[in-house]
Amino acid sequence: MTDDVPAQPPTTTSSADAGSAVTGPSERDGRRATLDAAEPRNLLSLAAFQILLRIGWIFKTETVIMPDFLDAIAGAGWIRGFLPVLNRAGQSVPPLCLAEAVQRSRSKTRLLLWIAVLMAVPFLVLGGVWAVLEEQRQPWLPPLFLALYFIFFSLNGLNQLTFGTAQGKLIRPTRRGRLLGLAGVLGSFGAVGAALWLLPGWLRMPGNAGYTPIFLFNGVMYVVAGLSLLWCREPHDPRQAFARPALWDPLRTAWRLYRDDAQFRRAARVSMCFISALLLFPHYQWLGRERLGTTSGDLLTWVVAQNVSLGTISPLLGRVADRRGNRLAVRISISLVAITPLMAVLLANQTLVDGRSWYWVTFALLGMCPLTVRALQNYTLELADESQHSLYLSTMTICMAAPFVFSPLVGWLVDALPYQWTFCAVSAVIAVGGLLTFRMPEPRHDVRDQRPENRSQRSEGRGQGTDF
Fold this sequence. Notes:
Elements: H1 25-57, H2 65-73, H3 77-80, H4 82-104, H5 108-132, H6 141-170, H7 176-203, H8 211-227, H9 249-260, H10 262-274, H11 284-292, H12 299-324, H13 326-349, H14 355-358, H15 360-366, H16 368-381, H17 389-401, H18 407-416, H19 419-436, H20 452-460
């Protein structure tokens, strides 16, 4: 089926009425009134959750801290190449398998609280192991680290799915950009403040001993973030029967969604091109160390640059998303992400400027990646009725995971070929994604489309509009 053929989105008996939580117009109106009255409080609570999560997250950044720690215990480029694979596999397969359970959960915010608490466990374990370890290059340590890394990102995938579903239930589309901006600004600058206060001393500890407090602090912040959701006011959805699907049913449902919904398919293609940016995440710090002679003392500068960039741009991107739609926000952010590998190559060659002094600019541009993911998720929410939010979000994560089968190959190519070739090739793929945004429709035609009853009608006609 091509994009030129109008199609209906897939509907499944397991999600046909999940998330609607209403049986008639009066109950629907009453539920909407309750949600609207609680929206300011819920927006602040969800923002606080993301702010605290961001403060913990800066102590495990995928571009700096995690690959540097893996180099300390292993060192090979092909092993670094497994980080993006485990990252995306964890964030895609478990959410797809559990999407229906998330959609049918009575309280999305309570489920999100417990997921956040469980996210702390891998880092508390890793911090404890590192504290008692005498010899760092143990043969069993890289496999243990990679296993904990996968478990964490499986939980984080469920965290993102549940957060998106909760946001879809509690926050109207035209205010989700406000949530993105508020959480981005306060989260990023709060994270930078914590990093400037704590990381310098920890990174200077001899023998990489600072990774113990780094990991323990990271885990504690996830617990605190989860507890902040106790402030949310969420009306419980009615209890619904849930039949455990067969092993391949979620994949079949995701494939039908991708095949039959032309609007979703265009967004998915954009996401697959964009997400190739993450294939290079473990290699930026390697490039700085190998080509520019950077040391662990530069790690803090890079972490701060990445988070300041995220905090500065997120309110601007959120304002664009609320006023002009998420399609334009996605287009702007992907354009900036496409520049990042080229900037790294330019600075590593030191042809124009002192590359080491300016290499932080690369990490400032990397700050756009989480914003792009969030903008794509918000765009995806507007393509579906509330009863299908989990299905659409989990299918989008599967689409984002597809390019990561090439991650070990990219790690090997970075070592085996001139690094410029690999970095420039990834930049070109991201740029293609930016061009494909011009084929994405803007689902937010007018304010009336965002009322619940009209969103449902709009979902029934998915794929029947003009193909761009």
